[in-house]
Write a structure and sequence with these properties.
With 468 residues, the chain is mainly beta. 10% of the residues lie in helices and 37% in strands. Strands 2, 3, 5, 8, 9, 10, 13, 14 and 15 form a nine-stranded antiparallel β-sheet that branches. Strands 1, 17, 18, 19, 23 and 26 form a six-stranded antiparallel β-sheet that branches. Strands 4, 6, 7, 11, 12 and 16 form a six-stranded antiparallel β-sheet that branches. A hairpin with a 5-residue loop joins strand 8 and strand 9.
């Protein structure tokens, strides 16, 4: 955080001390004074923990990235969406050696910086009974750092990270790892690439996506994925390439699909190329309906204690969703020449991911949408906060509750969400406290982050790096 002079509101503490001597008939005043004192104490402890708050410090860190998903299997947020008994297994399966043919084809047909959109089409796949193999076989000029992931029936698994076990041979016989600025150069002689065997429950929709960071250093300092963008094979960020020669190293009797990935905006699709083979390989389907989802994850403190900054007492994802029908037109070589999107539905929803407090609360979004913890759970239940587990909780199985936001009233610009917390008495005489999205310069009891950001486990404070 930026520095400023430290201010204390002493009158709040005085008010809390004097109000406790009032008569029983003034409980409402007593409770209000107690809450004011708690908030003052929380602000003091926050600054003891993180340092003085700059008056211009804001608490909305969400980048509002668009994430495209298939309506039937839900969003990519590091969670399982209705996965049930779905099985997904990914194992490393050695290396594969590619000759110069792949390198020549890429540098001839998929030039860096050229718009290569016409070389393929957006796609999803359907799993078969047989296993299939993924091979990240080429890296182009790519400053961004990325991880390759797959979503199978709502189950998400990481396959591979940039640079891992991918090398090329130079003309003088040395083996090197591709660099961000050069990738695999045109004069490379061969490529040694990792293989991954994937098995999954059959007849499930499947798509791939990249988690993308601005550079290697950004990834290294952001292991929890707070700043990662999500780019999918559903909306022109990965293409099933057409016309590429079959590499001789792919075993005979296997079907083959080759995927080109775009990690930025230049549409050259040579940033990462990976191939899939199998007998059969999961068939490619054109994308016809997608959901375009923008999500903020709100994390909150309920003042159960005033020196706890894990921000997991209430964790809720709020999303704005546009369902679109997509029409494509292809030429005789199955290359994309036209794309049109038409919106068919617009709605907003919210998903409760964690409840790390022991007090009852009600979430209110806009004027007409509310959800109360006690309507589903016992009030003192702490759900999905990983007590005793690693610092960042990965959110597995975390769809605790889901509800539609009436009249699409959520405004992501104003963050019109509040949480009303009942005191420990959990009754008419208990304190009632309202948590609103904080103004600039206030000690926050609520923050907004990307939907891919993992929350903290119990009593693990949010790191100060989040406030930058």
């Amino acid at each position: 955080m930026k520095l400023r002079s430290l201010f204390f509101v002493g009158s709040m503490a005085i008010l809390g001390a004097t109000s406790t001597s009032c008569s029983k008939g003034e409980d409402l005043f007593d409770n209000g004074a107690k809450i004011a004192w708690q908030k003052s104490e929380y602000a003091t402890n926050f600054e003891k923990k993180y340092g003085p708050i700059d008056p211009n410090q804001t608490w909305d860190f969400a980048t509002m990235d668009h994430v495209y998903t298939l309506p039937s299997i839900g969003s990519t947020a590091g969670t399982r969406a209705g996965a049930g008994d779905i099985s997904v297994n990914i194992v490393e399966d050695g290396q594969m050696l590619f000759g110069q043919g792949v390198i020549e084809w890429m540098h001839t047909n998929m030039k860096a910086g050229k718009n290569n959109t016409a070389m393929g089409s957006p796609f999803y796949m359907v799993t078969q009974e047989e296993n299939f193999t993924i091979v990240p076989c080429y890296q182009g000029v790519a400053t961004y750092f990325w991880e390759l992931w797959v979503n199978i029936g709502g189950v998400e698994r990481k396959i591979w990270s940039k640079y891992e076990n991918l090398k090329y041979e130079t003309p003088d016989g040395n083996w090197k790892t591709p660099t961000a600025k050069e990738g695999i150069p045109a004069n490379a002689v061969a490529i040694d690439a990792p293989k991954f065997k994937i098995g999954a429950t059959k007849d499930l929709q499947m798509y791939f996506f990249l988690k993308v960071w601005n550079n290697d250093e950004a990834h290294e300092s952001d292991k929890e994925g707070k700043t990662a963008r999500i780019l999918t094979s559903l909306d022109l960020k990965m293409l099933a390439l057409q016309g590429i020669d079959r590499p001789s190293c792919v075993p005979e009797g296997n079907e083959l699909t080759i995927i080109g990935c775009e990690d930025g905006t230049d549409s050259d699709y040579e940033d990462l190329v990976f191939l899939m083979y199998g007998s059969p390989v999961p068939p490619v389907h054109h994308v016809e309906v997608v959901e375009d989802r923008v999500t903020k994850r709100y994390m909150m403190e309920d003042l159960g204690t005033t020196d706890d900054f894990d921000f997991n007492d209430v964790v809720v994802d709020v999303s704005d969703v546009h369902r679109k029908k997509i029409t494509y037109d292809y030429d005789s070589n199955h290359r994309l020449v036209f794309k049109e999107e038409k919106e068919t539905e617009h709605y907003q929803d919210a998903v409760v991911r964690a409840t790390g407090g022991t007090m009852n609360f009600t979430i209110k979004i806009g004027e007409n949408t509310t959800w109360t913890k006690s309507s589903v759970f016992t009030v003192n239940d702490m759900k999905n906060t990983g007590w005793g587990k690693p610092i960042y909780y990965d959110g597995a199985e975390s769809e605790l509750a889901k509800f539609i936001i009436k009249n699409n009233e959520w405004n992501p610009n104003t963050n019109n969400i509040i949480v009303v917390v009942e005191g420990n008495d959990n009754g008419p005489s208990g304190e009632v406290m309202t948590i609103k999205f904080p103004k600039a310069g206030e000690a926050p009891m609520m923050i907004a982050v990307n939907g891919t950001t993992n929350w903290m486990s119990e009593r693990s404070s949010v790191p100060s790096s989040w406030w930058k």
